[in-house]
Amino acid sequence: MRLAVAGLGTLLLVLAVDGSGGWAFDWAPTDEELTRYHSSWNPRTHGAIYTEGADLVLQGQWSIRAYVQGQIGNGNFENQSTSRGSATPFNPDAVEPDVIVTYGLTKHLNVELSMSGLYWRSDNTDADGRKSGSGIGATSAILKYRPIVQNPDSWRPSVGLYSKLSLPTNQWFGTPSIPGGFTPLSRVPSSRFGSLAVTEGILVRKNLSPFRVSGDVFYTYNAPGEEHGSRTYGGDLLSTRFALEHVLHESTGFGYLLEVATLHQLPTRLDGHPTNSTPSTFWLMGVQPALEYTFLNRESGAHLVGAAGVMFTVAGHNDVRAIYPNISLKYFFDEP
Hints:
This protein is mainly beta. The chain has helices at 2-20, 31-38, 169-172; strands at 62-77, 85-86, 93-104, 109-121, 132-148, 158-167, 197-208, 211-222, 225-227, 230-232, 237-249, 254-265, 282-297, 303-317, 320-332. The longest helix has 19 residues, at 2-20.
């Protein structure tokens, strides 16, 4: 749990700096830097779907995001690093709706709450004889801190720090896991189903009119779990994202997105305990094309944006071969 302690220490430092108003701390954008960035090219569009943006909502502003991801399984990647797949006893299909509420706590810090659900069905039964299942998904509390804001007149990007605590509400409410224990490519950094998990990440973003380029790296520590009465120690997870957004029409927010996502379960754990999960390691790589559009854009700052795409797994090792159609809507309330 050293990662969790480090994340908590970062949070306490941020709150002390931004909440007291009396501390000198240079590792945060000045008002002049924020003003220069906010007046630069940055149209109100949806932006990347999978890649977490380093940008924040304004202090005192609320936003809400409704997101639905499907999973259509069509096999399993073979026990080797390959782009080829083979048939598997389980071809799970799933739908996961997700709602994320965000609030701008300070100029440099956002807090988020994510709640999800899950429905799945399979062409074969799981260990408990089920062919389908549904219920509450994971619930997550998220902090985003942006210590560096991009300079429109140089190559300096925006840089953000990301901390997420995932609560196993799916386990608490008895939601059955997807057959095979597959961990999918997901909009949020993946954690093991039914596991208490802590994620730390780094977010980068740069606007280069008419393009935006974003990238993320996440490390997730999962607390020990239990499967069929046995204690399980799965490897930690490493997730990466890269996104290119091309804004074709600023007034309508119409553009296209190209994203690449990877997920890798490591053979080690941060707590040093030997892993005993099966498989001991796996990885996935997916590519997603998507389109975006702005449905509402008011002078008050309120705006409604949306995007839709399909993530295709193009290579992997010891994990499900699937496609993930998804759609996302974000509503930003009036600026304070």
